[in-house]
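Lab notebook: predicted structure, single chain.

Context: the supervisor wants predicted structures on file for every construct in the current expression panel, including those that have not yet been purified. This is the next one on the list. No modifications to the sequence; it matches the entry in the shared construct table.
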Amino acid sequence: MIKNISEIGSVNFVSSRRAQRISLTVKADGKIRVAVPKRASMAEAERFVLNKKMWIKRQLNRLAGVDAVANEYAEKIKELDIDEAAAAIAARLQELADEFGFSYNRVTFRNQKTRWGSCSAKNNLSLNIKLALLPAELRDLILVHELVHTRIKNHGPLFWQELENIYPNARELDRRINHLGGLLQIPLS
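Prediction complete. Output recorded below exactly as produced.
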């Protein structure tokens, strides 16, 4: 059953035999689906959605941001030379490691959909090839972020202190990076 809920729009309430509890999903296309277990009433499901209204609006805004980023970067992605981008990022990573006294074992490049990079327990770095599309200061912050993980394997206070020793505005740059998270979802052509 589809109901229109103010400030949210259409919500598809689906009765489900398998659902153990009421669950809410905001799909990538912006459609909202609520799985309602047989033992729950539609009134309960509606109350659940109303209680989650702010969360739903945040998800819809995030999806709108993904679309805006996709539109902005669509041409840049088509023109991305993966081999050239990987070589440039690897060279910059080594420059930053040398400049700030970090070391790492190996670096690989992937087209990840959820993260810009990661650092393994053995200090192998995996970097998203789409880093090549970011402004230099954001790309460098991500590279240094992963280099800091070669010393500190979590995001605790010591990690942020180390990162902020290099980039005093690291948290502000991190927020800017988060706004570009939609870029991760765009497929490479």
